[in-house]
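Notes from hallway chat w/ T.B., transcribed later so I don't forget. T.B. wanted the structure written out for a chain they're using in a teaching module, and asked if we could keep both sequence and structure tokens in one place. Agreed to drop them here.
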Amino acid sequence: MTVEQPQAPNTGPKPRALRPRDAATLIIVDSSSGEPRVLLGRRRPDMVFMPGRYVFPGGRVDPSDRQVAVEEDLRPSDLGKLLVAMKGTRSVVRARALALAAVRETFEEAGLLIGTPLGAGALPKATNWQAFFATGYRPALGRLTFFARAITPPGRPRRFDSRFFCVDAEAIVHRATIADGELSDLEWHSIAQARSLELPNITRVVLEDLGERIAAGALHAGDFPVPFYHRRNGSFRRDLIGAGGDLE
């Protein structure tokens, strides 16, 4: 008879928690039919992070996002809020890159372009933006609003420090066909319809914030605080990034 030996307790050092990577998401709101709807897509089931879940278009920031110039910038109040509690080296360039990543990822995943005509002159050399520039447009950030922030809790296979931006569907200037992207079943859903989808918890929470802002008629109000979801000392927190650039 084989006797199973008890395992010795693990007294070695605990594995270091993954450091959250900068990421950005774009919530596109279409109010043309009366009831506001948002664009959501389903992540492929073979993906490591949130497989099969419905999410807004978005992804991690690429180094090339810091190299792209914009003619229509974020509002100063939004840039200021993005700098609040920013991990690592704080800079306006890095803050702007977050919004640029949201625009780029939305184009790559959904084929929807938020931009302005490129104009004459040499094309920018940012590698991951070549398909975007090939449409004849450059990104425009003037109609984006910094809406929410969330850091993936420790222990997940991927961790992101995600900033959520919102924009009206009227800002879409070009639509392209996307094949074999990370998202499928891209469709417009009312907030009520979206509640029945298989959503990540944070997406569900942000949707409720969105509904409240829309109901208040203040979706793009610059003086509204930005909810910031994260864990501190093992507890889930909802702090607010104030209009004055303070963490409340």
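Follow-up for T.B.: Residues 111 and 176 are 4 Å apart (CA to CA). Might be a good example for the class.
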